[in-house]
Amino acid sequence: NCDRGGLCSSIKLEVIPNLLFGMGNPLLDISAVVDKDFLDKYSLKPNDQILAEDKHKALFEELVKKFKVEYHAGGATQNSIKIAQWMIQEPHNVGTFFGCIGKDKFGDILKEKAQEAHIDAHYYEQDEEPTGTCAACITGDNRSLVANLAAANSYMKDKHLDLEENWKLVEKAKVYYIAGFFLTVSLESILKVAKHASENNKLFCLNLSAPFICQFFKDSLMQVMPYVDVLFGNETEAAAFAKEQDFETKDIKEIAKKAQALPKVNKKRQRIVVLTQGKDETAIRLSDKIEAFPVLKIDPKEIVDTIGAGDAFVGGFLSELVRDKPIDQCVKAAHYAANVIIRQAGCTFPEKPDFN
């Protein structure tokens, strides 16, 4: 497989529990179809991800009062781990997930949903902050996400990641995935995991996650970048990243090439850069060439919402990566998972995948 861009190592991976590790912001998604007036009232762009500020405090209550809402277990990394597990099916608990929640009703829902999704979630539970929420404001096939991190922001390396029984789960994994959103919470936790992966020639994957991460958390992002084996992003994040890094190009293929060339600690593996472009082809920088993979066609009428598309893409990709499959197979699974998710409300899915 290696000549087809597989991330092969001498060890062939048998799929066992805790092979895939994710760490991030566990949030309860509260989604609703809203109108333009609602977006304007809270100065939201139709298609964006932001952190809630004081002016958004009333948004969450108004959303629940005025519109028909649905609750889903969310948070970018947790979604991706969940989708990877769904794609793999058996055994259960291939994906481990760490994050911080509150001791409250929403926290209980998250625990329940993680169990239903067969992921091995180990939450750091504290009672100072409530469980985080994310308002998904849907208009047409756009979604504007407003995250109120609350408890998710309180993750503590020394209170959770460093505990022996938790760190053992980190050591069991062979593939690691963290969304860039977690850079706003615990850089030291990310670095500890990233260094472990690099020192043991395991795969560390990171997502740019949002333009604001590339802009306002640039220093943290660039502290982690030398450990990144697989970098994910979409076209708007790639453009923001290129601008902040002075790449002096808007061309997606050039951006992928320059992102790949950034310094890297583990020289045994060359970085792979995976950039999605919505309905347009996915661009992948692999060794010294760029490859373009068309996405699966879908009738716009069949799109329910695009909330979980990016997370699902990563989840599908990871489900094949943990099985040591070649990159073209990883992308095929990624496109399949994203295609399924956009036909559903939120990051939800049918009982079983129809993918081989």
From TrEMBL:
Keywords: ATP-binding, Kinase, Magnesium, Nucleotide-binding, Nucleus, Purine salvage, Transferase. The active site is at D311. One of its GO terms (molecular function) is ATP binding. Its main location: nucleus. It comes from the Eukaryota. Transmembrane segments: none annotated. Binds 3 Mg(2+) ions per subunit. Its EC number is 2.7.1.20. Its cofactor is Mg(2+). SUPFAM superfamilies: Ribokinase-like. It catalyses: adenosine + ATP = AMP + ADP + H(+). GO terms for biological process: adenosine salvage; AMP salvage; purine nucleobase metabolic process. InterPro entries: Adenokinase, Carboh/pur_kinase_PfkB_CS, PfkB_dom, Ribokinase-like. It is found in: Nucleus. Residues 39-350 form the Carbohydrate kinase PfkB domain. Pathway: Purine metabolism; AMP biosynthesis via salvage pathway; AMP from adenosine: step 1/1. It is an enzyme of class 2 (transferase). GO terms for cellular component: cytosol; nucleus. Monomer. Belongs to the carbohydrate kinase PfkB family. ATP dependent phosphorylation of adenosine and other related nucleoside analogs to monophosphate derivatives. This is Adenosine kinase.
